[in-house]
Design a protein that fits this description.
By secondary structure, the protein is an alpha+beta fold. It has one domain. Helices cover about 40% and strands about 20% of the residues. The protein is built from eight helices and seven strands. Strands 1-4-5-6-7 form a five-stranded antiparallel β-sheet. Helix 3 runs antiparallel to helix 4 and helix 4 crosses helix 5. The chain is globular.
Length: about 210
């Protein structure tokens, strides 16, 4: 059973130091970041869910045909614009999180990092690696007509004046705009935030994020 945790000053210092090394400072192609955490490229019959903070725990799950049909429904009819595709993508990831959460034991994951602790919880690294897998699956299935999975992005405490943070991103192919897909903000199964990288870097998404923090 997990319990709410309000970190002490010493705990905050430890998290900052750990976060600076684990969450911030790394950026790179998503496949390379998966390899960093010893996670294979995603397949429907072998999808890795990272949890336990820093991808300390890796659970392989399979997505059945019936479950995949539920995910695919988010893209029916096919989105007619990049904006509509991002909305569909958020719905699809929400469904994937619900499906994989039940199988990987992360259904009770709370948004943020400090509402609960334990192997069933996901920090920003866990969310970034797992989201990379979701994006690979959806792109490989041909659902992304206006975007492609891009890279891991990171921000330090000093850049955001907030916790060091990391997430996966998308590239909008027609414009070159980069969109951050951030599932860390909300509880398991809620749609992720998909925001322009400038808003993510300068932390203007934080009002939304703070609603999910202790």
């Amino acid at each position: 059973m997990t319990r709410p945790l309000r970190p002490s000053l010493s705990g905050l210092a430890l998290v900052l130091v750990t976060g600076l090394s684990a969450c911030a400072g790394f950026e790179g192609e998503l496949a390379g970041e998966q390899a960093r955490y010893e996670v294979a490229p995603a397949r429907r019959d072998a999808l890795t869910v990272c949890h336990g903070n820093g991808c300390a725990e890796r659970t392989l799950v399979a997505i059945s045909d019936a479950e995949w049909s539920e995910v695919a429904a988010a893209f029916a009819p096919p989105p007619a614009s990049a904006e509509a595709e991002r909305a569909a993508l958020a719905r699809a990831i929400s469904r994937l999180e619900t499906i994989t959460g039940a199988k990987a034991g992360t259904a009770g994951d709370r948004g943020g990092t400090f509402k609960a602790m334990g192997a069933d919880q996901m920090d920003c690294v866990d969310e970034m690696v797992t989201t990379a897998g979701y994006l690979q699956l959806l792109d490989g299935a041909g659902f992304l007509a206006f975007h492609k999975p891009h890279r891991r992005v990171s921000a330090t405490f000093f850049e955001q004046h907030f916790w060091p943070h990391t997430a996966a991103s998308l590239l909008e192919t027609a414009t070159g705009a980069e969109w951050v897909v951030d599932s860390w903000v909300h509880d398991n199964g809620a749609p992720p935030l998909i925001v322009p990288i400038a808003n993510w870097r300068d932390n203007s998404y934080r009002d939304e994020a703070m609603r999910s923090m202790p």
